[in-house]
Every structure is written in structure tokens, then in C-alpha cells.
Design a protein that fits this description.
85% of the residues lie in helices and 0% in strands. The protein is mainly alpha-helical. The protein folds into 2 domains: 2-179, Up-down Bundle (Growth Hormone, Chain: A); 196-393, Up-down Bundle (Growth Hormone, Chain: A), CATH 1.20.1250.20.
Length: 395
């Protein structure tokens, strides 16, 4: 019972960490008006949070392996709450930017520690199930976060949303301080950390494949998030509220398939589950490219298939990484998260280049082919390793 409670506590912690971005996204217009600033500066407050969140993964990962999960999580939660209050009461956009940067730095601890704790506490099939439950709770943030932020912002302004977030973070801190044990294995972090730790994770055929898959998947996902609303507006004349429903359906389909992905991983094994789930996800991008412009019904169906396939893959990489690197679990998760965030950042940028000629088909087809090529390359890497060391691959 206590393990199950800790699992949900860790999941809710990651949910609260993700709210730092999801609560805020529908309130950017309010911030621009209240602080008398520009859209560029407000968008910069989003980018600073994301960049800090990405870069600090590879700082806090090794730190959690050496110093312990609890020792870095609890102070980070206090800083996160304080930064959220700072965002609420910042009198100028420059101060808001500083507090948003601090928010991103402190919230970066949460996903690293969360995945490491699950890897520490659960073994074998239970680890896959635990990671699936964690991802299920985490996926609720992008699904309902903007809705909660919009409701609070409508009645209490963006300041109310940040205060609400600070209260949630302090509640998580209080419960974590009371019940979360130190889960770092005794043998973890005994070796002196060096940059070669990152090299080992990147060069290992299995973890290297996972990093590649994570990058291209997040690249394709953010192409969807940025350009799908434009497609709906231009081709089908959707209003923002209608577009929100379509994006909500994408998240909803991901949530429904996370547990199925856990079962697939436990039944078929790590390598086969990883390859075929990501292969399916890549194929849904190509399917979307060929069908989305033919009718609205086909577009919505393709979006739902994309979300469903993404949900299948959500917990697999973290489970495999925590099994492969038992002494550097947090470091491995930190590197994986960093690569994913890089994919998120590059997706909209390169997508804009691909969309320069105004062709949605070219944009999504190119993204899908890139995704598919990466999946097949990763399959080759894993296959060569399987022949050399078959027992290590299945975990």
C-alpha cells in the first residue's frame, strides 16, 4: 500500500511540475496586457522555462545519483513554490522572466527524481506497470492544465493561477517530506562522475536507440502541436475552442493507451515492444499526411491514432533506461529528457522551414519519413547488440 501511495505521490509531483507550463499557456494575453509588454517578451517567458527545464536535466540527474533523490527534490520544491509566487507578484516583465527561469530550473528536478524513484522501488514487470501509472498521471497535465489555468485566470487573473500552483507545490512538499523515503541504492553514485557517463549512455546501442526515438518522436509531436491548429483554422475554419477539443482528444487517446503499452512491454519484451510501438507511431504521422486534408473526419481519426500510438510508447523508454543503468538511473533519465526537449524545440523551428511553401502534406510527410527512418536505424542498432549480448537486451 505504501509503495502504491509513493507512486501516486511521485506522479502527482510530476503533474504539478508540468503545470508550470500548462497552467500558464492560456494566460499569455493577460500577462502581456497587465505588464504592458510585447508578445515577444511573453513568449520568451515560455522559452526560458523550457530551456532551463531541458538543460538542468543533465545537472540534476548526476546530482540525484550521487546525493540522493530526496535531498535534491525537497529543496527544489521549495524553490519552485517561491518562484511561482514571484511570478504572481512580479511588477515587471523582466522580473517575471527571472522567476520563470527559476521555475524552470527548480522544476527540472521533478521528472528526473520521479523516474529514478520508480526504478529504485519496483522491479521487473512491476516497474513497467509503475512507470505506466506514472505516465498516466503525468499526461493529465497537458490534458487539463490549460483548462484549469483558463478557469482560474478568468476569475482571478494569471496571478491567481501562479498562487494556485504555489499552494499545490507546497502541499506536495509537505507530503513528500513526511512520507517519501530516500530510495537511492547504496551502490549508486559511488563512482566519481565525469562526462564519460553521458558518453556511455549515448553510445550504448539500446539507450542510444531510445535517445534517437525520443528525439524524433518529440520533434513530430511538436510539429503536430504547432501546425495542427493552423491546419484546422485554414482548411476547416475552426475557432480556438474547437481546436482545443481536437488537441484534448489527442491527449485523451494517449492516456487511454498507456496501460496497454505497459502490457505489451511485459508480454513481448523490451526490444520488440519498443520497436513496434515506435514504428506504429511513425506510420501514424505518414497516415496523417495523406489523409488529413481529404476530410475533417479523416483528420480527427488520424489525430486520435497518433495520440493512441504515442501513449503506447510513453513508459517504455524510462523502464528500459532504469534497468540498463541501475547505478546512474537519474543521469540516464536526465539525458533522455534533455534529448526529448531538444526535439520539442527543433520541431517548430524546422517545421517552419518545411512549411515555407505552404504545404501541410509536405510538412507532415517529411516529419513522418524522418521518424520512420530513425525507427529503422534504431532497429539496426538494437539488432547488432542483440547478437553480441542477447541476455542483456530484454532486461
Amino acid at each position: 500500500m505504501k509503495l502504491r501511495f509513493i507512486l501516486y505521490l511521485i506522479g502527482f509531483s510530476a503533474f504539478v511540475g508540468s503545470l508550470g507550463q500548462n497552467l500558464y499557456s492560456p494566460l499569455l494575453g493577460q500577462v502581456e496586457q497587465h505588464l504592458h509588454t510585447t508578445g515577444y517578451m511573453v513568449n520568451l517567458s515560455v522559452s526560458l522555462f523550457t530551456m532551463a527545464l531541458a538543460v538542468m536535466q543533465i545537472v540534476f540527474g548526476p546530482l540525484a545519483d550521487r546525493k540522493g533523490r530526496r535531498k535534491i527534490l525537497l529543496p527544489a520544491l521549495i524553490v519552485y513554490a517561491a518562484a511561482s509566487l514571484g511570478c504572481a507578484f512580479a511588477p515587471s516583465v523582466w522580473q517575471l522572466l527571472c522567476f520563470r527561469l527559476l521555475q524552470g530550473i527548480s522544476s527540472a528536478v521533478i521528472p528526473v527524481v520521479a523516474a529514478a524513484v520508480i526504478g529504485d522501488l519496483f522491479q521487473g514487470k512491476d516497474r513497467a506497470k509503475g512507470m505506466g501509472t506514472y505516465q498516466l498521471v503525468l499526461m493529465l497535465a497537458p490534458a487539463i492544465g490549460p483548462l484549469i489555468g483558463g478557469i482560474i485566470g478568468q476569475h482571478y487573473g494569471y496571478q491567481g493561477a501562479f498562487i494556485f500552483l504555489a499552494v499545490l507545490v507546497l502541499a506536495v512538499w509537505a507530503v513528500s517530506a513526511a512520507v517519501l523515503p530516500e530510495t537511492k541504492p547504496e551502490h549508486s553514485g559511488q563512482r566519481r562522475f565525469s562526462l564519460t557517463n553521458f558518453s556511455v549512455i549515448a553510445k550504448h546501442p539500446i539507450s542510444g536507440t531510445i535517445l534517437l526515438y525520443g528525439f524524433v518522436q518529440c520533434f513530430a509531436y511538436f510539429v503536430f502541436l504547432v501546425f495542427l491548429p493552423q491546419m484546422l483554422s485554414q482548411l476547416y475554419h475552426f475557432m480556438p475552442a474547437q481546436t482545443g477539443v481536437v488537441l484534448l482528444s489527442l491527449s485523451g487517446c494517449s492516456i487511454t493507451s498507456i496501460k496497454l503499452g505497459t502490457w505489451i512491454q511485459n508480454y513481448f519484451g523490451n526490444r520488440r515492444a519498443l520497436f513496434y510501438s515506435f514504428l506504429l507511431h511513425a506510420l501514424t504521422v505518414i497516415l496523417f499526411a495523406f489523409t488529413a486534408m481529404s476530410s475533417l473526419s479523416f483528420l480527427i481519426l488520424a489525430v486520435c491514432l497518433f495520440g493512441f500510438a504515442m501513449g503506447l510508447t510513453m513508459s517504455m523508454p524510462s523502464v528500459i533506461l532504469t534497468e540498463l543503468f541501475s547505478e546512474e538511473r537519474a543521469t540516464a533519465i536526465g539525458v533522455y529528457n534533455l534529448v526529448r526537449y531538444l526535439g520539442m524545440a527543433l520541431g517548430p523551428m524546422l517545421g517552419s522551414v518545411l512549411y515555407a511553401h505552404g504545404s501541410f502534406t509536405l510538412l507532415f510527410l517529411t516529419s513522418g519519413i524522418l521518424f520512420l527512418t530513425a525507427v529503422l536505424v534504431g532497429k539496426g542498432w538494437m539488432g547488432s547488440f542483440a547478437m553480441a549480448a542477447p541476455k542483456k537486451v530484454e532486461g
